[in-house]
Design a protein that fits this description.
Elements lengths: L8 E4 L1 E6 L12 H10 L2 E6 L10 H14 L3 E7 L5 H7 L5 E5 L12 H10 L6 E4 L3 H8 L17 H13 L3 E3 L5 H13 L3 E5 L1 H5 L2 H7 L12 H9 L6 E2 L8 H4 L16 H10 L5 H15 L16 E11 L18 E11 L2 E5 L2 E2 L14
Helix pairs in contact: 3-4, 6-7
The protein binds (4S)-2,6-dioxohexahydropyrimidine-4-carboxylic acid and zinc ion (2 copies).
């Protein structure tokens, strides 16, 4: 087989450490095949799947069920988050070596996983292996109400109340006390990044994520997109959006929070419409384009989408193009420009908030562990060709 790469650029396959593939339970929104195909088409060769499925990934049996589903369907490499509950403290610790991390919801979101009391949070933080990340959804219930349930965009125009950082402050304090590794999912405001920066300076073992949604969209887009721009945490003000770019140094990973919901679900009245947007297929194109436009160095993107996720989650054999790593490779044509459309989106729900956006950089070929899996908009990968991740921590 001859690979023609004349004029193309080579990138490492991206790692999306934050996706919701809805399998099992809500496979009409997404399943492990459609989700990983969307990933592949977007140059993402490794994904970490969140536990808020039905049933949630919160026990040995539920984890095994999800592992079997992925083994049969996945076309990229995959790992899982274990979902914390008030009572599964010992079970989570016993299963730690089979998952990438724990996910602990300190504020409620899609699904039923939620741990808000101090005691179970503290016990999870001190019992789960200290070097293995606990990723937290650290949004306050109050700020969720303030933004999430307001039909009127009037409220979204205001900055969040200061109390929006209560969950984050608690997580940082308990991580400091227990000496554990903590990963903050989807940071969206300048204040959060200030608190995380301060904690890092103090020696707290904390890392944090930002999503392309919050990097590229703000509350003005929310008004334009209506329910399709509803997400938790919400799209923020222009000034918070700008702060994410200004504080880029503080940000460790970029993960998409790919959270598909159908058009029918999104078209319900605002209160009823679920939160979340797709993202796994558009992350690399949007970030590569931002680098092409000179907004950010490509190497800084690779750090946050490949090098750091591989390190933080202890992914064996994964990382940027270097000696000894898996040949997860993307070939991209940096000159070809195209428009992102809903028709291109391979997620079952078939829409993206970025429809209409023009980007430079067209994906030509994607290799997963050396095997050509996607070429010129055609799938070559067989369901089940994706492999489970192995962990160093
Ligand atoms: O908007 C969101 N959607 N935020 C979350 O935290 C969960 C996600 C989902 O699973 O739908
Ligand atoms: Zn979340
Ligand atoms: Zn999420």
């Amino acid at each position: 087989q001859i690979i023609e790469a004349n004029g193309l650029m080579v990138l490492p396959g991206f790692i999306d450490s934050h996706v919701h593939f809805r399998d099992p339970g809500s496979t009409y929104k997404e399943d492990f095949l459609s989700g990983t195909q969307a990933a592949l088409a977007g140059g993402v060769t490794t994904i970490l799947d969140m536990p808020n499925t039905q049933p949630p990934t919160d026990s040995r049996a539920h984890l095994q069920e999800k592992m079997a589903i992925a083994a049969a369907k996945a076309v990229v490499d995959y790992g899982f988050y274990f979902g914390a509950t008030d009572t599964n403290i010992e079970e989570a610790a016993a299963l730690a070596d089979q998952v990438a991390a724990m996910k602990l919801y300190m504020g409620s979101s899609t699904g039923s996983l939620l741990v808000t009391e101090f005691s179970p949070i503290y016990r999870h933080f001190s019992t789960f292996p200290l070097d293995k990340p606990i990723a937290v959804h650290a949004e306050d219930e109050q700020s969720l109400k303030y933004f999430g349930s307001q039909g009127s965009t009037e409220h979204n125009r205001t900055r969040p109340p200061l109390s929006a950082q209560i969950a984050l402050s608690r997580a940082l304090a308990i991580a400091e006390k227990t000496g554990r590794v903590l990963h903050i999912a989807h940071t969206t405001t300048q204040r959060e990044l200030e608190l995380i920066q301060e904690a890092k300076h103090k020696g707290v073992r904390v890392t944090c994520e930002v999503t392309p949604l919050h990097l590229f969209l703000n509350e003005e887009d929310q008004r334009r997109l209506g329910n399709f721009g509803k997400v938790n945490p919400p799209l923020r003000s222009k000034s918070d959006q700008a702060a994410l770019w200004r504080y880029f140094d503080v940000i460790d990973t970029i993960g998409t929070d790919h959270a598909p919901h159908t058009k029918e679900e999104k078209n319900q009245p605002y209160e009823k419409a679920p939160s979340g947007m797709t993202g796994v297929q558009t992350m690399l194109p949007l970030l590569f384009n931002a680098a092409q436009e000179g907004r950010v160095e490509l190497s800084e993107i690779i750090k946050r989408c490949v090098v750091n996720p591989a390190r933080i989650f202890g992914l064996k054999n994964k990382g940027a193009l270097e000696v000894g790593k898996d040949a997860d490779i993307v070939l991209i044509d940096p000159r070809q420009e195209y428009e992102i459309t809903n028709e291109q989106i391979l997620s079952k729900c078939g829409w993206t908030p970025f429809a209409g956006t023009r980007v430079r950089g067209k994906l030509r070929q994607v290799f997963v562990r050396g095997t050509l899996a996607f070429a010129h908009d055609t799938y070559l990968a067989q369901p089940g060709s994706g492999a489970p991740l192995q962990y160093k921590i």
